[in-house]
Design brief:
There is one protein chain. It contains twelve helices and 22 strands. The protein has about 475 residues and is of the alpha/beta class. It folds into three domains: about 210 residues, FAD/NAD(P)-binding domain, CATH 3.50.50.60; about 110 residues, FAD/NAD(P)-binding domain; about 110 residues, Enolase-like, domain 1, CATH 3.30.390.30. Strands 1, 2, 3, 4, 5, 6 and 17 form a seven-stranded mixed sheet that branches. Helix 1 packs parallel to helix 7, helix 3 runs antiparallel to helix 4 and helix 3 runs parallel beside helix 5. The structure holds flavin-adenine dinucleotide and nicotinamide-adenine-dinucleotide (NAD). Flavin-adenine dinucleotide binds next to helix 1, strand 2, helix 2, helix 3 and strand 4.
């Protein structure tokens, strides 16, 4: 005998939670199947929130924000320990799990613990050790099973000193020297955190450019700032060999192509992620999978089987918690008859030290498309709030269409970049331009005022 629902959601990360709650708010009968005993997925438990909390802890323990500000030198308050580093991470994680529990319960979403898989196009089998199997049927199925760290075969992950980004949260001692393999977003964020704590960090990636999706000017600025923080960049280099001695007092030796040998005592491998689709039974029911097991979907997140939707990391790019939640909203509303599309402009917030954030076009993108533009810049150094907080090297850049003066792109590097970008994001979504920034009265002194400064800079260049 099977239970019958309007929607069964597999996975309780940001995509699953939002999908379930949006359907429940439409009065639908919804169940979430989650294999772990706690909800929240990568965002709450191993990725987004833990890493952002560790960043905040690293900034606090290292006195980073106060360095040089008050005429006294603030360095690491004391030798930071792993428990110092992880204390708040644990608190934030617990609070977030409790918030998700309440959200699902308040909206009447049923929850079942166990590993879900499809036995036919309308039936999910839930299996949990020591419990009888359960079959759940539903009109619609939402696949929100997320992703897991990709583990390149070169690295011996069974050694306790070689970590992926999940295992990093269980370290028992801080590294005295760390090698970060992979200079994607995860690698860059963790490299900055450990460097801020005064730990020597080497960052290696076969790609020569740092975060090449960023505006080239901002990618360059970030590279400079990370280098100044103490991250040794080995971009355009691959690791050819790794030697991990049995005795953990002996250093781990990594040999780069070209012969350079680097000794460290811990290694973090952040080489991308693979979709969690193995064993889900998707292909037998007609759902199509692409590279690294990602589910193929259309613009409304329907798979090749129209009543089965997939959202979040399981469908691949851009693989962010922010976009996962939006995709889930669009998919569920579409399933229950409401036409919705995802915003055409999606922001990026990268929590390196300093933060970098962007929305819309990059300069190199506009040049490639042949779109005429003018760039306006504002430095934190000439902004009163920037001076007060001591962020001397941050920058905001606005890209406007040269004729219509509409905003085309916004780029920020510095304190609060991932918050500041939203002013530009809203302007982009609204189709606004220079006039909006000129005619808006901003609080004073604020970093947001840089929008006015950058706009005047762009207008002055046009006059010139
Ligand atoms: C270190 C790190 C930092 C990050 N920082 C950011 C950031 O700052 N901002 C941002 O927007 N994004 C960030 N991300 C990305 C973000 O965490 C993911 O994009 C987001 O968690 C994806 O949500 P999801 O719901 O698709 O998947 P997940 O959060 O991975 O959740 C999937 C859930 O499905 C469950 N599941 C899997 N298979 C089954 C099954 N067969 N049956 C039942 N349950 C199953 C899993 O247990 C899990 O709970 C970060 C990621 C990492 C790794
Ligand atoms: N602030 C944020 O929005 C945020 C933060 C962290 C993670 N995330 C998301 O999490 C996902 C995973 O991040 P990620 O950084 O692991 O993946 P990624 O795909 O962004 O970067 C992986 C990097 O590893 C390199 N690489 C691959 N194989 C390698 C190897 N064998 N040796 C050395 N380098 C290798 C690649 O060249 C690439 O630069 C991304 O989709 C990202 O968007 C987002």
């Amino acid at each position: 005998m099977a239970d019958d629902f309007d929607l069964v959601v597999i996975g309780s990360g940001p995509a699953g939670e939002q999908g379930a709650v949006h359907a429940a708010r439409l009065g639908k009968r919804v169940v979430v199947v989650e294999k772990e005993p706690v909800p929240g997925g990568t965002a709450a438990n191993t990725g987004t929130l833990p890493s952002k909390t560790l960043r905040e802890t690293a900034l606090y323990l290292s006195g980073y924000r106060a360095r040089g500000l008050f005429g006294v030198e603030t360095v690491l308050k004391r030798e930071a320990t792993v428990s110092d580093l992880l204390y708040r991470e644990r608190r934030v994680k617990e609070t977030e799990r409790a918030r998700i529990d309440v959200n699902l319960e308040r909206n009447g979403v049923e929850r079942v613990q166990g590993k879900g898989s499809l036995v036919d196009a309308h039936t999910v089998l839930v299996q949990r050790e020591g419990h009888p199997d359960r079959r759940i049927t539903a009109r619609f199925i939402l696949i929100a099973t997320g992703s897991s760290p990709y583990r390149p075969p070169l690295y011996p992950f069974d050694d306790p000193r070689v970590h992926d980004s999940d295992e990093l949260l269980d370290i028992t001692a801080l590294p005295s020297a760390l090698m970060v393999v992979g200079a994607g977003v995860v690698g860059c964020e963790y490299a900055c955190m450990f460097a801020a704590l005064g730990i020597p960090v080497t960052l290696v990636d076969p790609k020569p450019d740092l975060l090449s999706f960023l505006d080239t000017e901002f990618s360059g600025l970030l590279r400079e700032r990370m280098t100044a923080l103490g991250v040794r960049m080995r971009l355009g280099h691959s690791v050819e060999a790794i030697q991990v001695p049995q005795e953990n007092t002996e250093p781990i030796r990594l040999t780069l192509a070209g012969g350079e040998m680097i000794e460290v005592d811990q290694v973090l491998v952040a080489a991308g992620r693979s979709a969690n689709t193995a064993g889900l039974g998707l292909e037998p029911v007609g759902v199509k999978l692409g590279k690294r097991g990602q589910v193929e979907v259309g613009s409304t997140y329907q798979t090749a089987v129209p009543h089965i939707y997939a959202v979040g990391d399981v469908i691949g790019f851009p693989a962010l918690a922010s976009t996962a939640m939006e995709q889930a909203r669009v998919a569920v509303l579409h399933a229950f008859g409401q036409v919705q599309t995802i915003s055409p402009v999606l922001p990026y917030g990268i929590y390196t030290i300093p933060e970098v954030s962007m929305a819309g076009e990059t300069e190199q993108g506009l040049i490639a498309k042949g779109i005429p533009y003018v760039a306006g810049r504002a430095g934190y150094v000439i902004n009163p709030r920037g001076q007060i907080i001591g962020e001397g090297r941050g920058r905001l850049k606005l890209l406007f269409h040269r004729e219509s003066l509409k905003l085309l792109g916004v780029h920020v590097l510095g304190e609060q970049a991932s918050e500041l970008v939203h002013i530009g994001l809203l302007a982009l979504v609204a189709g606004a331009g220079t006039q909006l920034f000129v005619e808006t009265c901003f609080n004073y002194p604020t970093l947001s005022e840089m929008y006015k400064t950058a706009t005047y800079d762009a207008l002055q260049q046009l006059q010139a």
